Amino acid sequence: MAEVKEAKPVQAKRSPVKADARPDAKSKSIAQLVTPTDLGDEARKEIAKQLTVLLADVFALYIKTKNFHWHVSGPHFRDYHLMLEEQATAVYEITDVIAERARKLGGTTLRSTGQIAQLQRLKNNDADFVSAPDMLSELRNDNQELVKYLREVHDLCDDHEDVATASLIEEWIDQAEERIWFLFEASR
Q1: Which residues contact 102 (CB under 8 A, 6 or more apart)?
Q2: What is a single molecular function from GO for this protein (predicted)?
Q3: Which of 48, 70, 105, 109 has its CA 20 to 30 A from that of 97?
Q4: Is residue 5 one of the residues assigned to a domain?
Q5: CATH code of the domain in which 131 resides
Q6: How many domains, the chain?
């Protein structure tokens, strides 16, 4: 019988990596994500960046609205529960449109919940209990803040003649103003 020799582990040989090779690889990878557009490079980058920040705010508003939907309590439970579900759904529906608009501009967008937490300007509410009137008031204020942020990005789009993004933002402003109206009326 032939003698079996113990196999030695084989280590893959790696070519030495130059200090500047990784950034080049990263630059090439990111360059693959750039979408052609007639907007200038500065406009494209600025608008895509602001859309990503806006997306973080929209996700924060969505989570808070769902949180309040799940935890609302009181004599108007059913009405508030249903209204908050409708609002959460409407908020969530624009997330993909925002992210894809940033991509159409050649930018990148959110990659994690950690990035959302870093970028969001709307505050979380981790309280164990929030009264229904306080929930409605807080969501109304958050939607008003969101409208302010939307108008700022709209102004940026106007400055760079990005009518496509501006048109989308006009729709989102109208939707947010409707949420504000419903939250205001429900809390009177």
Answers
A1: 47, 48, 51, 52, 55, 108, 109
A2: DNA binding
A3: 70
A4: no
A5: 1.20.1260.10
A6: 1
Q: How many CB atoms lie within 10 A of CB 92?
A: 16
User: Distance from first CA to last CA of the chain, Å, rounded?
Assistant: 93
Cα(63)–Cα(183) distance, integer angstroms: 17
Is 92 within the bounds of a domain? yes
Whether residue 68 contacts residue 134, with contact meaning beta carbons closer than 8 Å, is answered with: no
CA distance 4 to 1: 9
Contacts 24+ apart (CB under 8 A), 130-134: 130/68, 130/71, 131/74, 132/72, 132/73, 132/74, 132/76, 132/77, 132/80, 133/187
CB 109 within 8 A of CB 51: yes
Please report where in the chains the tokens 């609205």 appear, as a residue.
65
pTM greater than 0.85: no
Using one digit for the tens of pLDDT, what is the confidence trace for 103-133?
999 999 999 999 999 999 999 999 999 999 9
Range of the domain at 156: 37-186
Is there a domain that residue 148 lies in?
yes
Q: Which residue has the tokens 């529960």?
A: 81
